[in-house]
Amino acid sequence: MGKVIHIVFSESAEVIFKYAINREKSIVGDKVISFYDNLSNGVIDNPINIDDRVNLLKERNEQYSYIHNNDIDKLKENYDKLYNKISKINDNDTIYLWYGQYDKEICGMIYVLHLLKDKSVNIYTVDVSDIIVRYSKSIILVKSPGGIAPENLDKYMKDARKIDSVEYQNSLNQWEILTKEKSVLRTYRNGKVESVSEDYFDKDILKFTDREYIKSIVVVGNIISNSEIGITDDYIFWRIIQLVNSGKINFKGNFGVIGEMDICISDEGLSYLSKYPKEMEYWNKIKQDLEKSKKFIDDIKNQGRMEERISIAKKLLDVLDIETIAEKTELTIDQIKNFYK
Fold first, then answer.
1. 206 and 257 together in one domain
2. Looking at the structure, do residues 299 and 166 belong to the same domain, yes or no?
3. Do 178 and 292 fall into the same domain?
4. Are residues 103 and 19 in the same domain?
5. What is the pLDDT of residues 265-274, one digit of tens each?
6. Which domain holds residue 182?
7. What pLDDT digit, counting tens, does each position of 108-148 carry?
8. pTM for the model
9. Where is the DUF1835 domain (predicted)?
10. How many domains does the chain have?
């Protein structure tokens, strides 16, 4: 009897699936295979040049302190494990490929399909971002398998879809095209993964960057939480570094350290963003919403101060003259006279 093998594309998903299979018993499975590399960015070859992929991480690690050295060490090891485990897959095994909205996961899935092309296995895909899980009083939407609770995986697995021969061949053709184009960035659009320019997402990053300084980690979080774009947090921060270098974003603090670097959009950045009316309109809306929120908070604070001044003035009515009370509380004489009525 063949094995049931789940393939995921992040460390967090790997942990969740192993726990679900070995402890929760919430889904059927014999093995979990994980692939970590983000093939949506950086030049890719056919076959993959692992040294080039490792060097890409090293180069970026020199520019900013977001990638840990152990991530670099783990990458080569992960490739070795991936190739070894896939080589042991038999024709009577069943494969489940789990992915979500992120370009990293979609590109990883296409690569794994390429590696499986010579095996006659049953392959199912589970796009978790396309599945709505309903409870009695709520619904759950996730962007990635790494965001699913282990006990809920069975609710997603029942919507697995078997990949047909035409779709499989399209994926193989896609991989061939992507590796020949030698692009440094790829994203899922128009129903397929396409090569795009390196600055393709810059407008989406800038539209979440305020005029006032804010922690870069907050900006990255806002982009991930509120945007439909499928890039990962490490790539967003790397592009922020490039936008600083090109003068479109200003910074203060510890350059290249996400938690210690404050950023704001520059005049040049606004000029660049103005070329994209939809994104510029969104930036203005965020700005207006922030101003309304700030005014609301200031009004509450001012109301509190006013009430405090009035309270003090009333206590001084029998002690000081009206002019002195007005001077000390910053109220008008007419306001204080009203307290006698």
1. yes
2. no
3. no
4. yes
5. 999 999 999 9
6. 4-192
7. 999 999 999 999 999 999 999 999 888 777 888 899 999 99
8. 0.84
9. 5-128
10. 3
